[in-house]
Fold each of these.
Amino acid sequence: MPISAEELLSVVRKYWRSDHEFDGKLERSPELERFQALWKQELKRLDQWRVLMRDLRAALPQFEIGHATATSTSCFRCTVFTDRQPVEASHEDGPRERRWGVVGCLSILAPIYTVYGLQYDYKGKDVIAAKVFFDPLPPEMQALAEVVGRKIEAMFGAEALPRELAETRIPLIVDLLEPPATTLFHALFATAPENVAV
């Protein structure tokens, strides 16, 4: 049975607060205590996540597969990217490169996942632009996202979080993001989806 926005809000309330009561205090909030304890438990699945990435490398040898999990977010993350490719730029801008790919996320808070697209533009070693793509993904990212999604489903038994649920606004503060900007996506996955190590 598909999970509802109400059920997900009930889950994320255990880990994120709606006030600033613990800001500036040495004492950790009960929500932060639960979040850190959950990550400690979930890190036992890190080897299984690495198996997923190994499977992705075998299935997608032409792509660069990376591990982008950070315990400050609410999910395991992996990246599947192209190599850098030259793009046309004006003479004043100098040479630029672009790479694109997808990010697979498995929430630690609920048995759900999402896959979204990313594109980075580079000038030399510096990222000069980052663009995030959600459903519908650009055509070149769709097949890649399907492979990643199927692998996560098969290995972890998670279900995809529909975009309309992911965009549900929630009355909670997630990291430094506050209502009305906060969504279920932010609470279940990450507040800065463009911020992955690539």
Amino acid sequence: MSQFSNDDHKLVDFLKQHRPSVPAADPALEDRLFDAIVATAQPTSLADRRASRSRRSVAWLVPSAIAAGLVATVVGYRTLMPAQPSATELASLEAFVESNWQGTLNNTSDEAPFGDVATN
């Protein structure tokens, strides 16, 4: 260990000389502490018992609400999801899109594509 300097010895001596006295221990302190712990752990009045019972009964509501929300989400998603189209509906849609694209890609008229605008 390192040696203290002279200033440190003076400080140690000062603290030893002016330290406060330790209070006497209360022999009944431990019993009072245990009585206080028991009193706070068990509700004594009817209102306290009802309040603790209601807190316990509310505890199951949160997981139940989460589960109900998940079920509602899955059921709602399944209900609102559109049905798969049949093969004839798909063929009809494909023919419609193809005929519309054919009309836009192949300009059959002699007019300019943008009306009266002249091209160079």
